[in-house]
Amino acid sequence: MILFEEMGLDASLLKAVKELGFETPTPIQEKVIPRILTDKVDLIALAQTGTGKTAAFGLPLIQMADTSVQDIQGLILCPTRELCMQITNDLKTFSKFEKGFKVVPVYGGASVETQIKSIKKGAQIVVGTPGRMLDLIKRKVVKVGKIRWLVLDEADEMLNMGFKEDLDAILAGTPADKQTLLFSATMPKEILRIADNYMHQPDEISAGKKNVGAENVHHEYYVAQAKYRYEVLKRIADMNPKIYGIVFCRTRRETKEVADKFMNDGYNADALHGDLSQSQRDYVMNRFRNKSLQMLVATDVAARGLDVNDLTHVINYNLPDELEAYIHRSGRTGRAGKSGISIAIVHTRETRKIRELEKITGKTFKRKPIPDGREICKKRLYTLVDKVEKVQLNEDQIGEFLPEIYKKLDWLSREDLIKHFVSVEFNRFLSYYKNAPDLNVDAESSSGGREKGRRDKRGKQEFSRFFINLGKLNKLNASKLIGLINDATHTKDMEIGKIDILKKFSFFEIEKHHEKDVLKAFEAGVKFEGVRVAVEISKPDHAKDKGAYKKKERPFKKYERSERKGGKKSGKKKPYRKR
Ligand code: AMP
User: Which residue, among 273, 419, 439, 428, has the nearest Cα to 371 in the 3D structure?
Assistant: First the structure.
């Protein structure tokens, strides 16, 4: 391991680093800092959040910037306003002993005039989100023709957020002889395209396994039926009274729904998503940062740049569509030398995704049983008793009231007194969990085993069967139908049963308790390939349009037969899960 002192950094920067309490460089700093200081080669660094990458590019840029001139020499692009502020503040802290060094942040959602004024006062480095940066370049306020460095931080996130065109436009205007430093937690194809188009034989650097953040994260998952996802989340929260974490949801809508339910159920949580105004987001983030909030329910995008280092848990309420985003999420915990737990709540057919995640992260994911009511009550009770034992007594303040209180409780024995006082705190929990069901399912295999409960219930018409006026002639297939249902219902938590795609129309099954949701979702005039979609509960009438079927189309035959028999369907149907 090399020391900061051995990297060629100036004394002023070493002093700032020391004041920050950085004792030794992180792996990415060890690899990147000496390279930038000595070499003009382009770099692609595979680095997650929390690995110390800001100092990895920030320290050498500060050292090499020419402070005798106020022209822009380096651009740093990042995905969010929060990250932009964070990088700027970090650079200001690192450069506190550098005379004449100036860094300016630019981002959308704030006054462009103020930002223009700051840039015109002079700065060597501008940090910005791509949209606003491009705007300022077009206004000729940010002049990129002579820049020496271009940093793309969290490049994969910038692409995920739809900044591809803006990035292309910015990159195209920069000089060919600049040094480009690209940092990304994942390496999707699009990053390689950027590297091919805009970088010169870049060297790839990976902090890989040495990554401190990732090393300290334990990965766990709970398997439950999709409809119990929220219930499982509550149990996880109840089982961890000191939790301080982020609950990741897939969409804004899901974030809102989960956060609303969570708050209504009395949890110390709030939502963070893109529908909030900037001041609302700042308010929520500040409450979370100062720990007034224990849990933040958030979308991936909204949680970017939230610089909180001591999260105990990250919970994947739903796994992200792009599994690689899981790395970003789980990297939010286990930072700054602390350990953390990353939890995924999955349904039975998603265990396959867990195996994929194990491959991507190189980590083992431990399946945990969903705690039952008794375990949760026990845990909470002992936490309460522990708190009582350790509470700081303010005898001066309570002293004057005690004689009266002793007198009032005199009739209770020591044991009864304890029982009474525990019940005051605890009855809500006990009654909630009194008859709480076991939510564990026995499925584990990636071939998609099903939970016991559902298999038993299948014969009891647990699914409703729907008719839809689209078939093969409309280019419909099973996966398109699933997509259509997902889009119309705005949720992926409904279980889809059997699907029969026929020539002119089709049938699908959805869990019975979602029947109304499905009908309502399609009332709103959904279109598919230009055809207005009609969905209704399947009736024997739908079977009469014989022209629509070829003889060999067995599903229909089966359907006809089963309808006549009173709706009992073939026991071997393979249920689809929405994807
Ligand atoms: P970053 O990945 O740049 O967001 O950094 C993550 C956190 O690690 C920040 O709070 C930094 O202040 C901190 N950090 C960066 N480098 C070091 C280091 N060498 N030693 C200790 N902490 C560091």
Answer: 439
Residue in the structure block whose two tokens are 């699009």:
190
Confirm or reject: Cβ of 48 under 6 Å from ligand 1: no
Q: Return the residue whose CA atom lies nearest to atom 1 of ligand 1.
A: 52
Instruction: Tell me which of 23, 26, 49 to substitute to probe ligand 1's pocket, judged by most ligand atoms within 8 Å of the beta carbon.
Output: 26
Decide: 26 in ligand 1 pocket, CB within 6 A. yes
- In this structure, the residue with its CA closest to atom 16 of ligand 1 is 52
Is 305's C-beta closer than 6 angstroms to any atom of ligand 1?
A: no
CA 51 to centroid of ligand 1, rounded, Å? 6
Asked whether 245 lines ligand 1 (CB < 6 A), one says no
Q: Where are the beta strands (DSSP E) in 235-363?
A: 245-248, 269-272, 295-298, 313-316, 340-346
Instruction: For ligand 1, say whether the CB of 97 is within 6 Å of any of its atoms.
Output: no
Q: pTM (2 decimals)?
A: 0.49
In the chain, residues under CATH classification 3.40.50.300 are 4-206, 217-372
Pick the CATH number of 217-372 from 2.40.10.170, 3.40.50.2020, 3.40.50.300, 3.20.20.70: 3.40.50.300
Answer whether 3 contacts ligand 1 (Cβ < 6 A).
no
CATH architecture of 462-564: 2-Layer Sandwich (3.30)
Please tell me the residue having the least CA distance from ligand 1 atom 20.
22
Q: What is the mean pLDDT of each run of 10 residues along the chain (579 residues)?
A: 90 94 89 92 86 93 95 95 91 96 94 95 96 96 95 90 91 93 86 87 72 69 91 94 93 92 90 85 90 92 77 93 82 77 90 84 88 87 84 85 91 90 80 82 43 37 84 87 84 75 90 87 87 89 52 36 34 44
The response to whether residue 25 sits with its C-beta less than 6 Å from ligand 1 reads yes
Q: Which of 509, 488, 476 is nearest to 576 (CA)?
A: 509
Is 373 a pocket residue for ligand 1 (Cβ < 6 Å)? Answer: no
Q: 121: Cβ–Cβ under 8 A, 6 or more apart, which residues?
A: 70, 102
Per the DSSP assignment, residues forming a β-bridge with 343 are 220, 315
Residue whose C-alpha is closest to residue 569's, from 451, 450, 465:
465
What does CATH list as the number for 4-206? 3.40.50.300
287-298 confidence digits (pLDDT tens)? 999 999 999 999
Specify whether the CB–CB gap between 108 and 79 falls below 8 A.
no
